[in-house]
Structure prediction request, 247 residues.
Amino acid sequence: MTMKFHFEVPGDDFTRAGEASGELKLKLKRLGFSADVVRRMTIAMYEGEINMAIHAGGGVADVEILPDRITAVLTDNGPGIPDIEQAMKEGWSTAPDNIRSLGFGAGMGLPNIKKYTDMLDIKSVVGKGTTLTMTVLAK
Amino acid sequence: MTVSEIAHSLGLEILVKGKDDRKVTGGYSGDLLSWVMGRAREGDAWITIMGNINAIAVAVLADISCIILAEGSPLDQDAKERAESERIPVLGSQKTAYNLSIELERII
Ligand SMILES: Nc1ncnc2c1ncn2[C@@H]1O[C@H](COP(=O)(O)OP(=O)(O)OP(=O)(O)O)[C@@H](O)[C@H]1O
Ligand SMILES: [Mg+2]
Prediction:
């Protein structure tokens, strides 16, 4: 059994950004994945979605669900990340003030994705965009 | 203790009733959403001043038992509607996050 889903993530709309992770949560729960797997995967997905909305003007998410793993590929055509190592550090953020007032911009999103997923790959080209591939294994 | 028992003993205003028979297993205080997603545990009561729609999304994803809005912080209308449909209890208080945290710790 393989299930695939495609989501469009809008830019600068933080009400709608979050729809993909919300829908994914329902699907994973319905499919019977453990609460821990659902929680880790959907938080990582939400962080990635919000990053695309805030930093990249939106993007797309493709999710593949297998019995033993869930993989999400998040792709955007935003400005890219010049220094991925720095971006991965807790507290590093380039989020503007209006975003911070919403509660984002702690510089904890990428570290959270790293913490909650079992595999994470980030590819980014400045001026072209960023692709995040994240996997959570379901034991 | 359940959410409704905590609301009663701390004298909290019920802004959204939600799943108020859920057990509260701990607490977390903070306003930066990624910190909450990274550090709060499943079942925690989340004490914050963030009453926006993103806070509700975070509470759902992090499996928070209830949101307690400190210092009379407002709950946005769209956030209220989302909390109702997701059945996330939202409680309100005029007290500070500091005082709410201490009181919560004493009773759970
Ligand atoms: N898709 C992306 N495109 C371009 N830059 C990005 C992208 N994702 C992250 N970044 C950069 O990496 C930084 C760190 O991202 P991270 O998610 O850890 O923190 P944040 O989004 O700034 O704040 P938080 O996630 O805590 O709300 C961002 O501030 C931004 O500069
Ligand atoms: Mg982020």
The mean pLDDT of chain A is 96. The beta strands of chain A are 3-10, 58-66, 69-76, 119-125, 129-137.
